[in-house]
Structures are given as structure tokens and as C-alpha cells.
Ornithine decarboxylase
Amino acid sequence: NETSFSSAFANFSSGEIFDQNSKRRSRLAVGEELKNHIMEIDPNECLAGEEDSFFVCDLGEVVRLYRNWKLKLPRVQPFYAIKCNNDSKVLTLLDKLGCNFDCASKGEIDKILKMGISPEKIVYANPCKSNSFIRYSKQVDVNLTTFDNFDELYKIKKLHPNCKLLLRIATNDQMAQCPLSIKFGSRNFETSVELMKLCKSLDLNLVGVAFHVGSGFSDLDSLRQAIKDSKELFVYAKSHLGIDMNILDIGGGFTLETFEESSSVANESLDENFPENLYPNLKIIAEPGRYMVSSAFTLACHIIARRGITNEKENTEKAVMLYLNDGLYGNLNCILYDHQKPVARILTRDGEFLYYKEYENSLTKRYPASIWGPTCDGLDCISEKTYLSHLLNVGDWMFFDNIGAYTSVASTSFNGFTQTASVKYVCSE
Ligand code: PLP
């Protein structure tokens, strides 16, 4: 509710937002919830599916992430990319915190509008839209979108002529976890100029430039370069076409792990290329996805089967094969689509829920294992080789943290496994 919301927010008046204490608070809250839920389930008695995998989401972590963004990138208004994780409570919270939204389809637009959020808070950030979706965006007053090709401009002229337009430019994103510029973005300055000229001759409302340096990017030079390239287009538009653009969209791709450096490079480059005194009316926006949710979610999975052990008492040095009730066709599809390498951690049934890493130093014995999903496909392998601190049994649980980005949104029901995992919520702030 509003009262607890504002008091949670008030905690962040100053200082570092992420510290050892915040991490501990989060782990305790999440661990407690995992424990409570798992203890309720008796694998010998439960109904089919009651022991399905589930997420725990720490909404307090989302608050910290958002607040950290505002602290470190004060000039940049985030439009959260809901393709990354469309959990309704997370979206509501981000809306309350003041975040806007990046939608890429009618479905995503509907999701935001049905929550009562204003269409003004949406950027329709997809440069290649179907005619019917463009008509729909006009109908529901979504009036800011991206484009990167000539046909798109003719479509927009016909179907949504007053829409505000951001020219998406390509970046050098080959080093990123998921490169995007192979598919989107005007390729060079000359093409961008031609596209801007067509906007002018069609009397379209060109308002700015957008780019994305690749999802999970690590090359800070590409961010610097993309801001510089954008600046050149702002200058050209004003000096040659008389168009005074006022929105710069620096896209997504940020991660919490590298945010210190990436936010500082963004600030430096923005101040150098778009100083506030020369661009007093400029709105700088971004489309972060994974940054806002990755560390806020933990996935708990149940061990449904095991191979490689001949009897119950065997204390083996051989690699065992563990089969979980979630995998590459379910919420761990991020291994395939998003090139993530989630680490399976252990949940013991005897009280404490410890992270595998915390065990590491005190390990006297390490058990080799491979970890598999539940489907009949050999591709469904979560980890070919890992080492565990305990020999796990059927009925034990494992969990994966940092698993909020590009997971549940792309899970399938292949083989008839239901993968709409439930989400339990805690708030560590
Ligand atoms: N904006 C656009 C246009 C995208 O395509 C994506 C991801 O594919 C994002 C934003 C979000 O990127 P990330 O989750 O890496 O921040």
C-alpha cells in the first residue's frame, strides 16, 4: 500500500544502495520464503504439479535497482523493457516508483494499459511493426515509436501520421551477450540522413535518435561511440533540415554487475556530447530490461529423478545425473536464448538454506553431477558438469538466483509440462 511504499522509498535518502547488508537482508527474506513453501510440500503425498518449480521475487531488490539507477544516471529516465519479465507486481511497483515502459507489441502495450498506466509512459520500441499494430497504437494513443527503414515511414505516414519518431541507429554490439544490431538500426550516417530527409518530406514528427548497444553489453566504447553518432545526427538535423530533435534513447543492455562503469561512461559521454546548457530541453531516456529484474528473482526446482546410483546408501565419486522439474523448455530457456549460465545451488531440508558458494570453502567432499530438465529431449541439459557439496536425493530442491531476466517470458509447455511457474513475493526493504 501507499504508506509502506513511501516508507520503503524513504530508506534510500543517501549513501550506497547495494551493500553487504542489503544482500544479506535479501538472501534471508528469499531463503525464508523458499523454506516455508518447500516445507509445505510433501513429495510423497502432494497432488500432481504441487511440487512444480516456483520463483521467489524480492520486490525490495527491484526498489534498490530502480533507486540505484536514479542515483547513478540522474539525467536518464528509464522505460523498463517489459519483454524481459512481465510480472504484474514488478510492473506495478516500477510504475509507482516513477518508471516508464518499453513495449514491443500489441500484447505488451495492452498489458501496460490494462494496469491503468497512461499511454504517455510507453515507448513502442520496435522499428519493424505490423500495419495493424501501428493502427492499434494510434487508436490507444501510444504516440512514441522507433523506426529504422524507409518502408516503416510510409506505413506510419498512412496509419499514424502524428506519431513521434525516434530513428534507431545500429551500434557495434558484437561483443554483447545478445547482439541486436545485426537485425535492427540504420547502418550508417548516410542512410540515417536519407531517413531523416524522408521524415521531413513526408512531414513526419521526427523527435530523436535511439540505439541499443546489445543486451548484456560489455564494450563501453560502443556506448561512447553510439552517443557520439547520435550527437552527429542531432547536429545534422538542426543545421541541414531545421529539425530540433529533443529525445535521445540510449536503449538497454545494462547489467547490475557492470553498472558502476557503464553508468559512469554514459554520464561522461552524455555530458560531453549533450551538455545540459546546450541541450536544455533534451529528454534522455533508456530501455533497461535485465538490469531491473535479474537479481530480484530466484527459481526453486525439485529433483524428480536420479541416475547413476545403485543403492540408497551409496556415497559416490561418480558423476550422477540429476533430473529437475524445470529446464531449457521451461524457465531455464535463458541458457539457450539468452546465453546465460545459471549456477545450480543447494537447498538442504535441515533448516538453513545456504548458497553453494558459501559452502565452497568448507567443502571436504565435492560430488560431480550433471543436471537435466524434465523433457524427453537430450538438448534439455542445464549443466553438463557441476560439483555439489551434498549428494542430493530425489525430492531435494535446487535453486538458481539472478534468474529474473528472459526466463518465465519465454518458457514453453513442450512435452506437456506446465511452465507458468508461480511467483512468491518478499520485500527485503
Ligand atoms: N530495448 C530493445 C529495443 C530491445 O530489443 C531490448 C532487448 O532485446 C531491450 C530494450 C532490453 O535490453 P536489456 O534487457 O538487455 O536491457
